[in-house]
Amino acid sequence: MKILVLASASVLAIASPAFAQRAVSDPATPFVNPTVAANSNISYIEQIGNSNAAAVTQSNDKNISGVQATGNENVASVTMANKTNGDYNASGVLQIDNNNLAVVDINGAGNRSSVQQEATTAGQYAGNGASVTLKGMGNLSEINQKGYKNTAVTYTGSGADGNKSYVNQTGNNNNAGTGFEGDRNYSYIVQQGDSNYAQAGGSGSDNYSYIGQNGNNNVASTLQNGGNDISVAYQQGNSNFANTIQKN
Q1: What separation, in Å, do the N-terminal and C-terminal C-alpha atoms of the chain show?
Q2: What are the CA-CA distances from residue 110 to residues 4, 24, 52, 141, 214 (Å)?
Q3: Is the N-terminal amide bond of 17 cis, ω within 30° of 0?
Q4: Beta carbons of 13 and 33 less than 8 angstroms apart
Q5: Do residues 148 and 119 lie in contact, with contact meaning Cβ atoms separated by under 8 Å?
Q6: CA-wise closest residue to 112 among 95, 136, 128
Q7: Where would I find the H helices in 68-219?
Q8: CB within 10 Å: which end of the chain, N or C, has fewer?
Q9: Domain chopping of the chain, boundaries
Q10: DSSP secondary structure code for residue 8 in this structure
Q11: What distance in Å separates the CA atoms of residue 44 and residue 11, rounded to the nearest whole number?
């Protein structure tokens, strides 16, 4: 059995016995899933290892969820609910190595979430944590974590539509968060190193934010409450601080 979930040019492939989850790229076109019939949901869970836990709750129609855990003591929770006449939510969680936590809560339509977590060294303790909350329509969240005790949080409000959030963390004890109350915002956070902190979001619409951190103990924050603003913050080295506030 093989199910393909198509999101623009990207594919979340849920295969039995093997499940492969890959990063979602540009979701500019509406989510299309030709393999899910009307009034049907699909959930696939695969766990290889010891003391792993996964819980999936799907309400209404045309939701699809895939969870794969390879290691020990990983925990994944996925909840999907739709607005009236809303369909086509998709979630993929891939947990490799040990002690990862992923919580995905989707309440809307056409939202997509991708979470990938793994340790720096195969088979070791990872302890990464990811939380995704998507309440609007047509939002995308992608979180990739490789290392030890990284934390990432993505949030879109109930009236926030068409937002895209990408978080990539490589290293240890990094913290990243994005939050949107407006529409069609784009946020990209890349952290390489240890103990970096990055936060981006706001209540505006049609904004672009990029935060790149390469080093240790860096702090960057971007708040965009206006419209059509662009913010780029790049930090290379250690103990740098950057704060951007844009409002009209």
Answers
A1: 52
A2: 16, 14, 29, 12, 34
A3: yes
A4: no
A5: yes
A6: 136
A7: none
A8: N
A9: 41-246
A10: T
A11: 15
Residue 132 and residue 83: Cα distance in Å, rounded?
A: 18
Q: How far is 173 from 63, CA to CA, in rounded Å?
A: 33
Distance CA 33, CA 141 (A): 18
Is the separation of the CB atoms in 68 and 76 below 8 Å? no
Amino acid at 239: S
CA distance 219 to 13: 36
Query: For 104-159, how does the pLDDT look when each residue is reduced to its tens digit (9 = 90+)?
Result: 999 988 999 999 999 999 889 999 999 999 998 999 999 999 999 999 999 999 88
Q: Which long-range contacts (CB under 8 A, 24 or more apart) does 187-194 make?
A: 187/163, 187/222, 191/150, 191/167, 193/218
For 38-49, give one letter per residue: b (16+ CB within 10 A) or e. Answer: eeebbbbbbbeb
Is residue 102 within 8 A of residue 93, CB to CB? The reply is yes
The token duo for 234 is 């790049």
Q: What is the pTM of this model?
A: 0.85
**What letter represents residue 67's amino acid?**
V
The CA distance from 140 to 37, in Å, is 23
Summarize pLDDT for 212-233 with one digit per residue, the tens. 999 999 999 999 999 999 999 9
Residue 139 three-state SS = coil
Structure confidence at residue 88 as a pLDDT band (50, 70, 90): confident
